[in-house]
Each structure stands twice: as C-alpha cells, then as structure tokens.
Design goal:
transferase, alpha+beta, disordered N terminus, hydrolase, 571 residues, GGT_peptidase, seven-stranded antiparallel sheet, 19 strands, globular
C-alpha cells in the first residue's frame, strides 16, 4: 500500500513539473527562468511592488528628496493601492544606510498589545490561539510613528510634499492592479458584513475589480491630517480618539492610552558573514536573525559543486531552515520581556554545531531547538530606495494578514492589523502574551555590505516564509552566480511544518513545497530521502525587491519580483 502511494505521488509530481523542466531559453541573455533585465541607473533607484509607488519614489528623488523621503512616499502610496497588504493600521521596520555617517541604522516601529487585555481574558473558553480576526489580535499600529522617526532623523522634504502622492491617489482615485483585485475578490466573504468595510471598500456593493478606478476619501482625509499635524494627530489627536471609541464599541481593548504611549525604537542591526559578504538584520521581536542562523549553518557546506535546484541543494537548505526555525519558535520575542541569546544564536560556533545535526543522506525525522545552556556557552509590502548621495533604505510594512483584522475604524479609511495573533497563549514561553508587549514579528528588512561598503538592500515579503526567501536570494547570488533579477526570478522552495512562536508544535519532517522549474530527478531524490514534496500554491512564495550598488562604477542595479505587480525604476 505504501509503495502504491509513493509511486502515485511521484507520477503526479513528475507530470506537474515536466513542462517547466523542458522550458526553452526565450531571452537573449540570462538564465532560462529570467523574466526581465536588471534596471541600471546612476542617480537614484526605487523598487516596489506597485508601479505607482515606484513612480512616486522616483519623483520625490527628482524633486530633491532623499531615499528616506522617497521610501516614506512609496510606502504611503502602497497603503492606498494595496490595503490588503499594508497601511497606516500596521507596523513597520527599516534599515537605513546613511551616506554621511557611513553607518547602518535600524528602526523597529512595531506596536504593543493593549494594556487592558490580559492572558486570562484571551484564554477564556479554552482558546489555544488568539483569534485571527476581530478586535482581539489588534495591536498598536506603528507605521505612522515609523514614518516620522525616519523623516525626523534623515528626511529633507516637508511631510506635506512626501504624503501628497498617497493623498492624491486616495482622493482622486487610481486603477486597481491585478494582485489587489485578486485579494479584493475575497473581501466580501471575509469581512463583507462589516458596515465600515462596505462603506469604504465596497462603495457600490462590490469590491473593486481589476482596472476599476477606486477612491478612498476617508483615507485621504486621515493622511492629510497626518501630513499637516504630524504623528501626534494619529497617536494623541482625533484619529487616536476615533480608534479608541471604535474599539470600545466593538468589544476591543486597544485604547487611547495604548496609542498615546506608543514609541518606536532605534537599534543597531546585527550581522554575520557568508562567504565574504556581511548580511545585516534587525534583532527580535522580528525573525531576522533566522536568516543569519541559516547562513551560518549553510556556510559549512561547499556549494561550488552543488547545482542549483539539485536534491542536495534543496536538502541542505531545508534542513538548515528546520534547525533555525526551532530556535525561532523557542527564543524569539519582545526582548523587553524575555532574555534572548542573540549573540550566541548567530555565532559561527553555534552554526557549526547545528550543521553537524544534518544527515547528508536523508531528512532527519525531528529537530529541536538548541539548549539554552549550550547557547550560553558557545500579507506585507517590501520596498527599497537609493539616492544620488549614496543613502539606501530597506523598508518593510504590513497589516500581517490580508486586510489585517478586518476592523476598519469609523471615518478613517484603513484596516487595523492583526499582528497580535502571533502571540502564544501557552504560559512560560518567551512569546507568551502579556499586556503592553510587542508580538513576535515576521516582517524583516535586510542589508548586505562587502568590504565595509554598502552592497545590497533587499527583502522578500511573505510572512513566515521571509527568512527562507532571503536565504534563497543570497544563495542564488553568492553560491550560484545569478544576477539580482535572476536571483528573484528563480523557482523557490518553501518548507512548512516547523514549530511556531504561537506554540504550534513541529510536524517532524514536514512538507517541501516547490514552484515549477525543479527537475523530476531532484523531486524523486527528495522523496527517496524521506521528504514529503508537493507543488506550491501561487502567491505563497513571497515577493522580492532589491537594489545592488556597484561602488566602482557608482551605478545602482534594481530588481523587482515578477510574482508581484511592481517594478524597478531609476534615473
């Protein structure tokens, strides 16, 4: 019986991947899977997941703004055009390379849980996880404070100019692009009974469709107030009071005090090296150091003779992911509430020890997190912008799930995030829920330096997939010699079944999901090694943007993921 299941699975997978395996070369240059050329420019570059946002960023640069101004402008536009992915009801993280000081700065603009919501309240009625939607997973939105922190430290143009692009699109309308239209098609079933969702996002009784011109005057008014009045309008003014009243009316706990007490945190990015490149991430409460842990494990294996897409490549990548994600589930949390051994987790010595656990011949049936005593010894948008002065910004912003919590405060025109869903309700864990605590976060900006010079600003959106996506991009460039566009175009690998910071237990080996483009031989070998292998679902493999800096020529190289609606542009 088991043999029959094995061969049936094999036949299905082989037939699924056969056509892509025989794909011909359609472009004059590059890999067979390459979709477009790298964009190159000398003075400025912007890469986002929506052309209108990219165009706004480039316009800001041409008007004398810097990369930070342009990044905020682009993010604000994305909140208008893609409310399913991001907006001022969500959180933000950024890494900024400042050309004047020649230094990297990290910003954690994530919000905290409500003061008045307790673990006991959340565990009522035997709940094992925080609800995915509604008022309970709502935490303080950090985005607006993040904008003003970035602008206050580095910005040049007035915020009225920077936010004018988003205000214009919200008030006067814009044509809905493909990805947003795809998500809007599910809005009625998800949150269509919510009167504010109907009023703002279904003004004619149906969600906007591809190519329809959509307007959001409520959001335009909110953005205009923020542009004129500053961040306090959102956290201490009328917007805060409106959110407070809306949450009280709808059984929520987020209050005026939660908003008024909010503040972002400037911090130093942390790093490791990978074959001569230094990769930078932000420390927890985000999952960025997962990337560094995976790289430290993978650096112990020689990929010079391992072909891209081979079973060996996929096997080593997957096992490194499984090892790092067990630590992610156990240790990552708000550092104000838990002691996290960051230096030990990202150390080379720890990476060597974890790499020893990988069996080269087969999938290990089960991995656990590293012993803390041993350690002591030893749905989202991403964008990146660079300017003529040499400043570079790596920025990521999110509502968490599509349309966040589904909660749209009266008259404000935006969704509140549901990031609180990622807390654990199991007592005694690093990420266990507590009032005024930042939840575990999935959104992570990244940066790479080489020889102490800025080399690459990049990110891969996609929830818990983001570390997997970032590591694959880096391996594609460093180990497999791809251009930054090819590195994003290449077929991707996703493994599911690891332990989660929410308290969800490991599923053992789990399942490898593959995009089309991997060979039947690799899939067959993976099955023989004990993996479950399945075809991936479109939309589950993230979205990538990247700017690389050629210091010798002083040229920016830009890349944008074909899985999204966006583009790279420069001048």
């Amino acid at each position: 019986m088991k043999k029959n299941i094995f061969f049936c699975s094999l036949l299905i997978l082989l037939s699924f991947f056969f056509c892509s395996f025989l794909q011909a070369q359609d472009r004059l240059t590059g890999k067979s899977f390459a979709t477009r050329s790298v964009v190159m420019a000398q003075h400025g570059m912007a890469c986002t997941s929506q052309p209108l946002a990219t165009a706004a960023a480039i316009d800001v640069l041409k008007k004398g703004g810097n990369a930070i101004d342009a990044a905020v402008a682009a993010n604000a536009v994305l909140g208008v055009t893609d409310p399913e992915m991001n907006g001022i009801g969500g959180d933000l993280f950024a890494i900024v390379y400042d050309a004047k000081t020649k230094k990297l700065y990290g910003l954690n603009a994530s919000g905290r849980s409500p003061y008045n919501l307790t673990l006991d309240i959340l565990k009522q009625n035997g709940k094992q996880f925080i609800p995915f939607s509604g008022p309970l997973p709502v935490s303080v939105p950090g985005c607006v404070d993040g904008w003003f922190q970035l602008h206050g430290k580095f910005g040049k143009l007035p915020m009225t100019d920077i936010l004018s692009y988003a205000i214009n699109y919200a008030r006067n309308g814009f044509p809905v692009a493909d990805e947003a239209a795809f998500e809007y098609a599910h809005l009625k079933d998800l949150y269509g009974k919510n009167p504010n969702v109907q009023r703002v996002f279904m003004p004619n009784g149906a969600a906007p469709k591809r190519g329809e011109v959509f307007k959001n005057p409520q959001l335009a008014n909110s953005l205009e107030k923020i542009a004129i009045g500053g961040r306090d309008v959102f956290y201490k003014g009328n917007i805060a009071k409106t959110i407070d009243g809306f949450m009280k009316k709808n059984g929520g706990y987020l209050s005026y005090k939660d908003l008024a007490d909010h503040k972002s945190e400037w911090l130093d990015p942390v790093s490791t090296t990978y074959r001569g490149y230094r990769v930078w991430e932000l420390p927890p409460n985000g999952q960025g150091i997962t990337v560094l842990q995976m790289l430290n494990i993978l650096e112990n294996f020689d990929f010079s003779k391992v072909p891209f897409g081979s079973a060996e490549h996929i096997h080593l990548f997957t096992e490194a992911k499984r090892l790092a994600y067990e630590d992610r589930a156990k240790y990552y949390a708000d550092p104000a509430f838990a002691k996290i051994p960051v230096d030990e987790l990202i150390s080379k010595s720890y990476g060597i020890e974890r790499a020893k656990l990988i069996n080269m011949q087969k999938a290990s049936p089960y991995f656990t997190a590293g012993d803390d005593k041993a350690l002591k010894g030893g749905e989202t948008v991403y964008l990146t912008v660079a300017d003529d002065e040499g400043n570079m910004v790596s920025l990521i912003q999110s509502n968490f799930a599509a349309f966040g919590s589904g909660m749209v405060p009266d008259s404000l025109g935006f969704f509140l995030q549901n990031r609180g869903y990622l807390f654990s309700l199991q007592e005694g864990q690093n990420n266990t829920y507590a009032p005024h605590k930042r939840p575990f976060h999935t959104i992570i900006p990244a940066f790479v330096t080489k020889d102490n010079q800025p080399y690459m600003s990049f990110g891969v959106m996609g929830g818990g997939f983001q570390p997997e996506g970032q590591v694959q991009v880096l391996m594609n460039i460093i180990d497999f010699g791809m251009t930054i566009q090819e590195a994003g175009d290449a077929p991707r690998i996703e493994h599911e079944g690891s332990s989660e910071p929410t308290g969800k237990a490991s599923e053992g080996v789990g399942t490898i999901y593959l995009e089309s483009g991997f060979s039947p031989e690799s899939i067959r070998s993976l099955l023989q090694m004990g993996y479950k292998v399945a075809a991936g679902t479109p939309g589950e493999f993230g979205g990538y943007q990247c700017i690389k800096f050629d210091a010798k020529q002083h040229v920016y190289h830009g890349a944008s993921d074909p899985r999204k609606d966006g583009m790279a542009a420069g001048y």
